[in-house]
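All the exercises in this workshop are built on plain-text protein records. A record pairs a protein's sequence with a compact description of its fold. Read left to right, the backbone structure tokens trace the chain's path through space. Once this layout is familiar, the rest of the handout is easier to follow. Here is such a record, shown just as it appears in the course material:
>
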Amino acid sequence: MSTIGLGAVRAKYEFISYFREFDALFFTFLFPVIMLGIFSAAFGGMGDIGPAGHQVNFATYYLPAMVAAGILLSGVQNLAVAIAGEKSNGTLKRLGGTPLPPMSYFIGKLGSTFVTGAMQVVVLLLFARLVFGVELPTDPAKYLQLLWIFVLGLLACALLGMALSAVPRSGRSATAVVIPLLLFLQFISGVYLPFSQLPSWMQTVASFFPLKWMAQGMRSVFLPDQFKALEVGGQWHLGWIALVLAGWLVVGLVLTRLTFRWIRKDA
């Protein structure tokens, strides 16, 4: 079979394996849905939020952040923990002894991540619409905007997750390394707290990482245009979003190429 054909077979295997692991399913696939439900229920009694005359309920407000967080978890957390575990339990060592090209392995991981990430977005949108009555965009251009932010963001996060998998010394320690880092990024990037209300130093730090830009891009899709007045500079800055995500994609690609090994050097 060709490299792409082997990658497709590997993607099917990864997809099936993903939905057989409850911890991965809960902490990456269902976690944003659960958090959207918690925040919407907890703050729903406080009224609406946003600029005067253009306010939305809390379910609508938190939906973009949960979509962005889902991309981060599907790409970085899922792949970093999974690949670290495969290195630790000998799976990668065994694969390295087969004719499977590394590129097919990467295609399998990326393919599975794209499918599960897309499913997660659909589940989030359906949950928000059916449970909390969130009004979704009707303009097709908004969904094209959602598509390119999703593709760029997920590619960047997936490659960064592959690179980050080289940091934990074992699969057992992977969650202890990865999860606190991603929680920190979520808190400073406007996922759980309004970004405009965070201290300036947090905003500055968050601006160096892709989650802040993904969350901002998703707000431009799902929130009224008047909400851009709450962003830094009073604009959505879609050009900067594309540039930063593309930059992190390149960084992730380079780091993955430099760090990925079938077997850890210190194993």
The chain has one domain: 3-259.
